[in-house]
Amino acid sequence: MKQALVKLHISVFLAGFTGVLGILITLNEALLVWYRIGITVISLFFLLLWNKQLEQVPFKKAVQLFFIGSLIAIHWVCFYGSIKYANVSIGLVCFASTGLFTAIIEPLLTTKKFSIAEFGLGALSLLGIYLIFHFDARYRLGISIGIASAIFAALFSVLNKKNVATVTPKTMMLYELTGGFLLLSLIMPFYLNKFYTNHLFPNWRELGWLLMLSWFCTVWAMDLMLQALKKVSAFTQNLSLNLEPVYGILLAFILFQEQKDLQVSFYWGFALIASSVVLQMFRVLRLKHQ
């Protein structure tokens, strides 16, 4: 369990950079995710081929993984949309509500029993987001998109938990992200028609950020996360991911001075979210030693 938690928190640390990279890469949210997934799929395919780890998956399982990958693609589009319509700090804090939605969805889709404690801790995170939403009207659109992002992230994690024991992490990642790439490729013409942009191709600097986003914050982070998911629950994973705002917000404060644009309600809300993470970590460790 300890090794799984270490892997989980390394992946969370890497994920903390994704919000900052979403600002540094000025492509719109759908194009950013399309490039991110495309680079990841190509890199992962050749990595598995080189290491002779490329595995075939039965057609039915492949379809399931493609569907799950479409959820992560939509989650990422909403996540970066939240950042671009609000800011890094708001987008990352909204992601913390994933714990609440997981506590609701996981018992419905798996054999796991509904936990009042998990629901309560997730609700604490949502209360923190509500404080920000209610008292700072500037970011309401970004917050709404961020909540949608959290719902898709919860669905993704719960469904991943059901499949992680049957497919190796890197193979699962390859099939899922291929599904996400195919979905985005299909809807991209309609998306760009609705949300027009003349910035279709990354410049050299943005290409460097995309490579970092794909190789370190996607391939490595997701591999560690899927390994950890074999030992921990989807709820623990998602609540641990609430630490992602800690790293991302600190980086946003340092690089973009976002603290100048945030009201006191943000800090009260963030305190509630951080409390839910700490309480869940104590709860997991206590249950483990019983």
Main attributes?
13 helices; single chain; 290 residues; mainly alpha; globular
Tell me what the structure shows:
The chain has 13 helices and no strands. The chain has one domain (2-288). The protein has helices at 2-15, 18-24, 29-50, 59-85, 88-95, 98-109, 116-135, 140-163, 169-194, 204-229, 234-240, 244-256, 264-288. The protein has 290 residues and is an all-alpha fold.
Helix fraction, binned, reads over 70%
Backbone structural class? mainly alpha
Query: What is the count of DSSP helices, taking H or I runs of 4+ residues?
Result: 13
Task: Average the pLDDT over all residues and give the rounded result.
Answer: 82
Radius of gyration: 18 Å
How many DSSP-defined strands?
0
The overall number of domains is 1
One letter per element, helices H and strands E, the order comes to HHHHHHHHHHHHH
Shape: globular
Tell me what portion of residues adopts beta-strand conformation.
Answer: under 5%
Low-confidence stretches: none
Distance between the termini: 14 Å
How many strands, what sense, and barrel or not for the largest sheet?
Answer: none
Describe the secondary-structure layout.
Blueprint: H1 2-15, H2 18-24, H3 29-50, H4 59-85, H5 88-95, H6 98-109, H7 116-135, H8 140-163, H9 169-194, H10 204-229, H11 234-240, H12 244-256, H13 264-288
